[in-house]
Automatic annotation (TrEMBL), chain A:
This protein's GO CC annotations: plasma membrane
Gene Ontology molecular-function annotations: protein-transporting ATPase activity
Family affiliation: Belongs to the SecD/SecF family. SecD subfamily.
Protein name: Protein translocase subunit SecD
Gene field: secD
Cell location: Cell membrane
Keywords, ordered alphabetically: Cell membrane, Membrane, Protein transport, Translocation, Transmembrane, Transmembrane helix, Transport
Disordered: annotated span: 134-224
Subunit structure: Forms a complex with SecF. Part of the essential Sec protein translocation apparatus which comprises SecA, SecYEG and auxiliary proteins SecDF. Other proteins may also be involved.
Domain Protein export membrane protein SecD/SecF C-terminal: 383-557
Record function comment: Part of the Sec protein translocase complex. Interacts with the SecYEG preprotein conducting channel. SecDF uses the proton motive force (PMF) to complete protein translocation after the ATP-dependent function of SecA.
Residue ranges of domain SecDF P1 head subdomain in the record: 281-379
From TrEMBL, chain B:
TM spans (from-to): 25-44, 140-157, 164-187, 193-215, 246-269, 275-299
Designated name of the protein: Protein-export membrane protein SecF
Keywords: Cell membrane, Membrane, Protein transport, Translocation, Transmembrane, Transmembrane helix, Transport
Region annotation Disordered: where it falls in the sequence: 323-358
Organism: Streptomyces finlayi
A GO MF label: protein-transporting ATPase activity
Lineage per the UniProt record: Bacteria, Bacillati, Actinomycetota, Actinomycetes, Kitasatosporales
Gene assigned in the entry: secF
Amino acid sequence: MAAPKKGRKVSGAPGRPGRALALITIVILALAGGMFASGHTTPRLGIDLAGGTSITLKAQNEPGQPNAINKTNMDTAVAIMERRVNGMGVSESEVQTQGTDNIIVNIPKGTNSKQAREQVGTTAKLYFRQVLAQTQGTPLPDPGKTPKPDPTSTKKPDEAKDPKDKDGKDKDSKDKKSSPTPDPTKTSQGRAVTDALKAPTPTPTPGASKTPDPKTTPPAQDPATAKLEKAFAALDCTKPEQREKAGDGIKPSEPTIACGKSITGKVWDGKSWDKFILGPAELEGTDVKKASGTFDTQRALWKVDMEFTKEGSDKFAKTTGKLMKLQQPLNQFGIVLDGNVVSAPSVSTVLSGNAEITGSFTQETAQELGNILSYGSLPLTFKEETVTTVTPALGSDQLEAGLIAGAIGLALVVIYLVLYYRGLSFVALLSLLVSGILTYTIMALLGPAIGFALNLPAVCGAIVAIGITADSFIVYFERIRDEIRDGRTLRPAVERAWPRARRTILVSDFVSLLSAVVLYIVTVGKVQGFAFTLGLTTLLDVVVVFLFTKPLMTLLASKTKFFGNGHKWSGLDPKRLGVQPPLRRTRRSVVPTEPKEA
Amino acid sequence: MSRLGSIGARLYRGEVGYDFVGKRMIWYGISVLITVVAIAGLAFKGLNMGIEFQGGALFTTPPTSVSVEKAKEDAEKASGHDAIVQKLGNDTLRIQVGGLDTKTAAPVTEKLAQDLGVPTEKINTELVGPSWGEQIANKAWTGLAVFMVLVVIYLAIAFEWRMAVAALIALVHDLTITVGIYALVGFEVTPGTVIGLLTILGYSLYDTVVVFDGLKEGAKDITKQTRFTYSEIANRSLNGTLVRSINTTVVALLPVAGLLFIGGGVLGAGMLNDISLSLFVGLAAGAYSSIFIATPLVADLKERDPAMKALKKRILAKRAAEAKNGPAAEGDAPQDAVPAAVVGPRPSRGRPASGKRR
């Protein structure tokens, strides 16, 4: 829609009112038919009206990765989040991008929103980093947490790919492979590999000199290292804020510090934390093709199988090759998720392709780590911006309030129109009705079609739109009245008024539409629902005025005496409009006539 | 109604009318005054930004008999931050706590639920990170800027640049007044308010566009006549479209009033209330500005156009000549005898329409 065009076919002539009316009737019937056929007879309700939880996540800019927030990465993130949420059995939840850097996750009522929130919101970036130093949260006890590699590089390709779910096959192959398996406990300490020591550590390793606890630390003295050490010494992993913030703002290619749960038995005691100094990221989440927690029937324990991508496999081989020669804790790599060490297995052999991590896993922790490894490879870091939880009770209250408000607004408009326009208000009311039906059916159909959900602001938009729609009728009616005041009889008045009213309606609706579109594109969150409804109803307003109101006026003016002869209740009575007989035409628009003092 | 109808007719024909354009300085003055007050309010009092803009948590309980004071105490104890508690119409409590972020709020919800004796899952929560409001505000500013640029271009094409400029000034005027009222009254600014404010953009222009459209049409052959200056024609079309403007404004305000009544009166607070309040204020300001500000501004701008200046000169010369010839001219060519001002209030005319062209 651009500048209003002049001289469309309809202008000035009655056109074919019957056709237009038939067309819109067909459209309405088709939409209504489609609505009933599809079984979606009510618009889908948004979280704020139906109840549920809605989370807005915002992608964070990370140091060193300036252009990471782009469409591809956002789409990948959405896909991963969808898998995660649906993976936990929340099938009706939806994940969508909004604007350039926001993701909205809507979880309907009745599902475990807390769990979903944790899965979606907190699982973000995953890195494998070498452990450069570690302090035990608890007196370190047993030795056992180790990662074990499952050597697959050597193995045959097909085995390398075992799907985790097929237990049978999986196990078999694993067993074969896993000769070098380490085992057990997942905490920091693994069985140390003896040879360690000298492997060239890739990065400046922070020295432990000042820190009391780090057990092993190769000295290193540059300022960055010193700074890191200081931060490490100051880090208190028992404080949640510190855990959150540890390592904030550090690039993946630099050493960092982090906390991790200190698990000694099968179960975490709930309060012990280890802290780590970690080397630069060797692999990242995207290098893991898939991973899963599986039960090893032979050894009767839970473990996590990982399969790397080709590239990841090479990197992993290199890393493990380097680490296996080092000593505890340098032979460990930390699996760092969102800045937290989720596991820090030690390495005793070169691994690639596939690997397994064993340790003191329970079914839950093994599966969780599997999930994190497979789905943790979000390309971006996200931060929770808003979390809204609405109970179904409040939702239905709000819906009800919205509907009542709409009813009141509509009633007021109707009363005003009837009082002011008399018979003409009949045309306006029918047009509003048509507009209402169109809006409702389209909203109902857009639910399944594009996932449109009616939320509270959208309801507001629809109510506000009553005014916009009625305004178009007023513009047209006033035009007709002006023509009658110029002395025309109704039929020509209806036709002559149209081209000019049409122009006004198009221009002003275009401005409305423009604001709706701009709002929709540049804003986020609830504003979009509002903008969408406003835009939709503005478009429908044009449709209704062109295909319904105008043709109906033409018909009424020519076919009915009530309107055609300007009955005094028709709203078009020349006398009531102040026309004085004798009627006389004027050249009003060009040279306005001026009242002269009598 | 017929009285209204005939007033409409007389306005339309220019028999009655108000000299909006001629008295524009009064209206400009009033608007400047209001705008200054609004800006002063904004500068000295500032806006009362809602929790969504500062970060924090908003809890809504199910209907409960717990008192506001007790809830406040509990909320402050549970969170360690100041809380604002309101009792809403349906006996629910609305508790706002600042300074929480999305992570730290979860335990607070549980504690609060316990203290208030309400099941956790029955409490509605809205947790907002501190940067969310900033994000909304930034996007709103972007939207505002983009919209203004586009709409000025569009209006310049559909009408002309002077009208585009006048419309833009009127728009800024409406927004300033609305924001100023928010600052002065101390209404809370929420994302709902921002939605309402942004909607004013489209809506306040709707009115202006209706008036401009009439003006453009009225002035299309202006250079071919020597009876009216641009300002006079502008005033005439303004009066001619007055009924339309009033009607469209009233009809636009009625549904918003419905929202405001339910949102504010019954629910007590929330999105409905926030959107409708800012819309209501903005729409009212918009109606005022499209009549009293936008059109007079166009006339002012237009009178600087050389063609219009020349026209005005010719008209003044002609009027001076007619004034000399006086009554003589009247009998012969009554249509050319024009009073200096186009329309002013013309009280008490016996028979409205008849005095007119004859």
